[in-house]
Write a structure and sequence with these properties.
The protein is an alpha+beta fold. It contains two helices and four strands; from the N terminus they run ββαββα.
Length: about 120
């Protein structure tokens, strides 16, 4: 897929196809997306922008930059939203005191050789 950056918005991770949908809430906004969709893509579809550097529609996410951290109700930590798939009933926050205090990436993309 070739994107024209002037016409198409990059939603952070490739689209997932399937008949099953997942309903979740992101920053108080309910949204339904295809099962397997990343949180960063679901957020973009809901109109919520999550900072990202290494995530793009044209590549599978690898979570290197650590800029897209989110908080998920009932779970510990602050996972990368580009590598975390949505789940039924999930409640996601992209802005919180916990996220503000969380260490973020340094803005550099760290690549590692494949195994």
């Amino acid at each position: 897929m070739i994107m024209n950056p002037l016409r198409e918005r990059d939603l952070g991770t490739p689209a997932r196809k399937g008949e099953a949908t997942v309903q979740l809430t992101i920053d108080g906004q309910p949204i339904a997306v295809a099962a397997g969709t990343s949180i960063v893509r679901a957020a973009a579809l809901a109109g919520v922008e999550v900072p990202k550097l290494c995530a793009t529609d044209s590549l599978e996410a690898f979570g290197s930059c650590r800029l897209c951290l989110v908080e998920i109700e009932g779970r510990g930590g602050t996972p990368a939203s580009c590598t975390t798939p949505v789940a039924p009933g999930m409640v996601v926050r992209t802005q919180s005191d916990k996220l503000a205090a969380a260490p973020r990436g340094d803005g550099a993309v760290h690549l590692r050789p494949s195994a």
